[in-house]
Amino acid sequence: MGEFDNTLGALSIGYVVASILFGIMSVQSFRYFQVFAKDPVQLKVLVAGLWILDTLQLFFIGDALYFWMVSNYANPKSLADSTWSFNMGIFTTNSIVLIVEMFFAYRVFTVSKNVWLALVIATLSLCYWGFELATLIRTFQLVKVELFFEFQWIASTGLACAAVADLLIAASLSFYLHQSRTGIKTTDSVINKLLLYAINTGLLTSVFALIDMICFLTMPSNLIHIAFNLMIGKLYTNSLLASLNVRTSLRSELQNHTSYTMSSFQAARQASAPSSKGQSTTVDVARTIDVHTDYVDFESTHTSSFKH
């Protein structure tokens, strides 16, 4: 019984949690297309592509579970056989991780203007994908699951690269966003929220990658590490969509505060403005706060002009 708990049991639990995360991701995707209809086409294609990959991953792993738990219900030895759908499900997850990390690498470049930092993150992401691709090819060749663990160092190295890339993304965005503080309460509040998103999402994905790697190295004979691997892809897609959808609340916060500040300030200036020859002097105050928090950058500019 214990053997099934660590294999099919772990895989089933991972699949259920991954399905829940997929549901959250689907809701986020629907909200994105509903609210941000004017976003660039390439960004819409990215979101749609990630949703398709997430769907395919669930389909592939579901097919593998059906093979082991239904088609071979009375044949426990089938657990030693790797299926094409199981391998493709893992590879789909790897592709999702690569795409999302490349997205955040570009965001780091846009925020920091540091080409080398972005290249390091992109290189780590490509190394992760390359190691996992090599693992996939070897898995198709070996067929038997127990033979797969003879080269576990390849997959583990890939997971380590992904974890380091995530930590670099979180640290870089946190540092450069902190550097962009303006001293203005509202914009600093928005920056603080972006900092929290960057830190939380980066740490969460890196922690899961490390747990996956540790379980794989310490318990290579079971599928507990696969349970975490199934969730990783969903965490990446949810983190990307959360960073896109949060723009609604951030912009609303800025617009509400800016509108209130401008109306109060203009009324005060007009009431205290001196008059000449019975004519009142009109004071126009233009204060623009533009916080661009879309998929590529974050800018904060403040412009004030007074006409007397």
Sum this structure up briefly:
This protein is mostly helical.
Could you describe the 3D structure shown?
The chain has 308 residues and is mainly alpha-helical. It has two domains: 2-247, Rhopdopsin 7-helix transmembrane proteins (Up-down Bundle); 253-307, no CATH class. Helices cover 77% and strands 5% of the residues. The chain has a two-stranded antiparallel ribbon. The longest helix has 34 residues, at 2-35. Residues 258-265 and 275-308 have low confidence and may be disordered. Residues 162-248 form the DUF6534 domain. InterPro entries: DUF6534 (IPR045339). It comes from Dendrothele bispora (strain CBS 962.96).
State the end-to-end distance.
84 Å
CATH architecture classification of the largest domain? Up-down Bundle
Secondary structure: helix percent? over 70%
Q: Which whole number gives the mean pLDDT?
A: 77
In what order do the strands lie side by side in the largest sheet? 1-2
What's the overall geometry?
globular
Largest sheet: 2 strands, antiparallel
Secondary-structure-derived class: mainly alpha
CATH class designation of the largest domain: Mainly Alpha
Helix-strand pattern, N to C?
A: HHHHHHHHHEE
